[in-house]
Amino acid sequence: MAPPAQSHRSPSPSQPSGKGEVSDLKTQLRQLAGSRAPGTDDTKRELFKKVISYMTIGIDVSSVFSEMVMCSATSDIVLKKMCYLYVGNYAKHNPDLALLTINFLQRDCKDEDPMIRGLALRSLCSLGVANLVEYLVGPLGNGLKDGNSYVRMVAAVGVLKLYHLSASTCLDADFPPLLKQLMLKDKDAQVVANCLTSLQEIWSLEASTSEEAARERETLLSKPVVYYFLNRMKEFSEWAQCIVLELVSKYVPVDSEEIFDIMNLLEDRLHHANGAVVLATIKVFLHMTLSMTDVHQQVYERIKAPLLTLVSSGSPEQSYAVLSHLHLLVMRAPYIFSSDYKHFYCQYNEPFYVKKLKLDMLTAVANESNTYEIVTELCEYVANVDIPMARESIRAVGKIALQQYDVNAIVDRLLQFLEMEKEHVTAETLVLVKDLLRKYPQWSHDCIAVVGNISSKNVQEPKAKAALIWMLGEYAQDMQDSPYILEGLVENWDEENSAEVRLHLLTAVMKCFLRRAPETQKALGDALAAGVADFHQDVHDRALLYYRLLKYDVSVAERIVNPPKQAVSVFADTQSSEMKDRIFDEFNSLSVVYQKPSYMFTDKEHRGPFAFSEELGSLSIGTEPSDGAVAAQRVEANDKDLLLGTSEKEESHGYGNNGSAYNAPSYDASTTAGASQGHFDLVSIDQPSTLHPPSSFAIDDLLGLGMPAAPSSAPPALLLNAKATIDPNAFQQKWRQLPVSLSQETSIDPQGVAGMTNPQALPQHMQGHSINCIASGGQAPNFKFFFFAQKAEGSSAYLVECVINSSSCKVQLKIKTDDQATSQAFSELFQSALSKFGST
Amino acid sequence: MLQCIFLLSDSGEVLLEKQLTGHRVDRAICDWFWNQILTQGDSLKLVPVISSPTHYLFQVVREGITFLACSQVEMPPLMAIEFLCRVADVLSNYLDGLNEDLIKDNFVIVYELLDEMIDNGFPLTTEPNILREMIAPPNIVSKVLSVVTGNTSNVSNTLPGATASCVPWRKTDLKHATNEVYVDLVEEMDATINRDGNLVKCEIYGEVQVNSNLSGLPDLTLSFANPSIFNDVRFHPCVRLRPWELNQILSFVPPDGQFKLMSYRVKKLKSTPIYVKPQFTSDSGTCRISVLVGIRNDPGKSIDNITVEFRLPPCVTSSDLSPNYGAVNVLADKTCSWTIGRMPKDKAPSMSGTLVLETGMERLHVFPTFQVAFRIMGVALSGLKIDKLDLKNPLSRPHKGFRALTRGGEFQVRS
User: Fold this and answer.
1) What are residue B9's phi and psi, to 5 degrees?
2) Which residues belong to any copy of the Beta-adaptin appendage C-terminal subdomain domain (chain A) (predicted)?
3) Smallest CA–CA separation between A613 and chain B, in Å?
4) Residue range A711-741, pLDDT digits in tens
5) pTM of the model
6) Which of B153, B160, B151, B141 is closest to B108 using CA atoms?
């Protein structure tokens, strides 16, 4: 028989190929195949071990398949097990050879030793070769009727394996009804549990096509069946209990009496040593009592202690999984946990992800009685060596301050942070003081006194700098030096890299001018001049807006820039309560760990109880699964653009919702930047800027960044210059000059992501499409690339910033070009090139 | 349901791969995973549950071995993690430890074990006693036996009796020449003490460990003198819950050998057996450090194995530390460990020295946290007392033994 074609799993170059050894093994095995000499088994065992160890380290040993099968005639059970293992690994890719194994597996299925019968049946079902399913039916049928529970247990799972191979064979052989019978009668609990898992999966997959299956699925949740399982609960192994409890959590009891019965029956499960059982029980309790508010509260009280024990008893990994669930519950009902706040204190050697969860919980459970102690504890972390931790702790203190009525002590603490003279502490605290002032303007005097002492030179982080500048503008009349500090900042305009800071600076100078005109006049003039010359679109536009406003009427400017403000009562929450409810419904699942409902991280095709996609299952089979997804996302991105423009605007949308007349600088940005741009492009053409396209495009730009330009109906196919070059400095300059003409989010083929381990792979691939990589960088999961391309005829250039997140497979594109009309065509070209990455 | 389990060495090499369903998981996932670890710098810093582009990954790290499980469908995360922890426990129990070489030498046994522990992605049995009957551990006895008899199979040919018995964790026909049962109370004290010496938090996590070598089907009851101190308890599946709820009595048929009968938590303890008082005084670029250790609350037995560990802040360039008792060791990563050992009777151990700060730094303003370890034999600091242990159906009077032990757990002193 010809050796099978090399499968895709070719050994990597770093490993020894083992070719020579494999062929050695082959001849040795062949010699042994027929031998019945004493001691043969020992030699065979050594050889088998070698084969398996090669297989384990990833060397392809599928070429000895037929020899392995020939040697499989043995009574030694370890040899058999090794042989099963080998066969299970390679049969799928060698279906022809797999046929050879059927014979000996079928024979073993009739062995007198139940262990061998079971093992053989398990291997037979795991071969995974679709055209051999006919050989499975007989042994499976016998297995289900076997006298030994071990064999029945294997057979029950075997039916499910068969179903995944060939649903029709499984259904035609009438296995599901057989399983059901077994499930309700068998005296071995493990058999019952295995039948349950198999049936659950088969029926829920069949339910969409067959009414009968849908009905059967319903009966699994019927009262007699659920009670049958509940009554046998104690017989099940801990893992089977998890499965049964999951089933029970879906059951809808008719009245409260039934609920109490079930809860009484299950209460002792809360003492189980296995955390998975405890969590599954908690899920049942929570879901059953959702409609009974009082009892629901009592359930929280009841499950509190077991959860806290689980956190402190297990390994760090277990603690983390439990903590994520605890986190969810604490967020839902913080008052119940408010006396247990000490459990959420962080140990300094805990990993950061655990500390983060604990900080969230500490923030949530803070109330009048424990705030003092919690804040004291948090202050300890601020002094910590661990900088991310210190930052998070300051944020936590700020959050507590924002949710409490008695903030006196907390403000003092925050102001003490400012005196610690650590850059990250100061930066983080400034941002918080700003938020605090927006909510409690009455504290301005105390804060301003301290903030005024901070030298703006010690603040480097954009967010902190922006916060400081905002305060300088907002409280200009209370801060003696405000105009002079601002003036100093304006002088260094060119060195300020962050557009956010420059925007704030403009607004602050403006506010300061409206209150202390004589002192600020010079700074304002400088700022407006610098702003108008700024290459950043928003800064440029805001400067112009202010300029025109002042020219038009100073009192109008005052009304727009510096209106009377109401204190912010509630800051918009990052996670909507609806989403939190969704996560709660999915208690005891991955959703809780990721803190997202499952629809946000699972694809539609995976959402069923069990559905694989082959493409995703093995990275090496090349197809293009992401096309549809890209299209869908593009539509979504467009919608978003039309509604909100950018994420910054989304944020300000949140402020608007608060119903206050507050206008933070970023709020100005969303409403005025757009208007002024339109205004500018339509009216003034004498401005120095030549970068702007004709007005029609500007409007297109405003409305939907992803829309194809209206006048250019079906642009001709875009051809790129294969030999385009640009030197990095020229690229950088151009990148800074040009406005973003298109920004899009798309996704990349997961296979492509797998290929990103080699940093040169993507640039090389794109070069094949006449798109050159100028620079790249980043660390997993975020990679950033700058690409450059040029049109084949004409000199218009395309500059692309491409940010790839390799864990979510999301790609963010920013395209800049001096030929707006073809930007959409180029974007499509770029995306199609990108989507081919990894599948070639 | 899990699709695949990988065992990775501490350099990211795949030691073992066990596919669990018909849908193969390509090994490329391990490369992806290892890259994630490399970017985090340390496997312990990576969240145990992450999502890769293709799979959800669960990881548990034990003794440098990473147990990595992949799934494409939603499942209870704790179930996967708990299972991986059990796999790790069973393997280290079988192989007498856990390291790369042990796994490589015994990979056939590991495969066999995984085969029995999980089928088609659903965990079956993880009870070590049952597994032991299906797959014999690679111990010296069986090695000797195989040499003598020439039978090298390490698999018992009969199915475990317990699979059919009503007590799944125990064989039906056990015989021991020595009839004995030992009960150990092992407690760990978790405490946080802040810089003013106040006890911020102090609680005990304890376990009741039983080593049973009893013949037949023994039925034991264990009662405590003061069960009301428990804040929360968890039991081995063998414990009958009804008697506990009624009278706080533990009634059970024990598995054979060593097992954890129950674990418990006792909250709000008022004091710790020892104190650690660190002090720092900075003066123009150097910092004086002094640490005092002493008995705060005499437990009545001697305290030993005392070590005090802390990590010098990164701004410290050099240190000179000298103790009046024990030895101080400073590692390259600035971890200082002061081994005191047994608490001396005549004097209070102290350590003092100077730290030199980075140039330009006047005074120290981040302070380390001190991690304290200790051991007290013969005392359960929670105050838990065992009342009595009875055997219901004695064939002969068994020998009974009780011990207690308290260790420092997460015992941290801030400065």
Assistant:
1) -80, 175
2) 718-835
3) 9
4) 444 445 677 777 777 777 777 777 777 777 7
5) 0.69
6) B153
